[in-house]
Amino acid sequence: MTQLAKARAGASTDAMKHVAESEGVSLDWLRDRMARGRIVIPANPRHEGLRPCGIGEGLTIKVNANIGTSSDKASLEEEHEKLQAALEAGADAVMDLSTGGDINLCRRAVLENCPVPVGTVPVYQAVVEAVNEDGGLIHLTVDRIFDVIERQARDGVDFITVHCGLTLAALKTLRAQGRVTDIVSRGGAFLTTWMLHHNRENPLYEYYDRLLDIAGKYDVTLSLGDGLRPGCIADATDRAQIHELMILGELTDRAWKRDVQVMIEGPGHVPLNQIRANILLQKQLCRNAPFYVLGPLVTDVAAGYDHVACAIGGAVAGEAGADFLCYVTPSEHLCLPGPPEVREGVVVTKIAAHAADIARGHQGALDRDRKMSEARKRLDWEAQMALAIDPVKARRMREANPPGEDDVCTMCGKYCAIKQVREYFQPE
Question: Which of 34, 132, 22 is nearest to 74 (CA)?
Answer without folding.
Answer: 132
